[in-house]
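Checklist before submission:
- one chain only
- standard amino acids only
- sequence pasted in full

Submission:
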Amino acid sequence: MTPLQFHRAVENMEIWSARSGGYSFVLSLQGPTGPGFRGRFGYVASWRPLDQSRGAIRVLGSPLQSFAEAEDACNSMLNYLRD
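Returned file contents:
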């Protein structure tokens, strides 16, 4: 199985997206101050089915401390969804 390939979705902000197997995943960096989303510091990972117009579901464990941890969490969620 090929891991998700994230690409920057919004210029000048830490928002990344990837698609695979009918699902969309988004990683966004949040923090208590500065530009971007507000909250505890870390990467928030979320997913949703591409064929349904519904809100995203946060990946368990978010916010994660690094981009690599968030990417791994999304790949684990994708594997779970495929099974």
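Reviewer check: The first strand starts at residue 7 and ends at 10.
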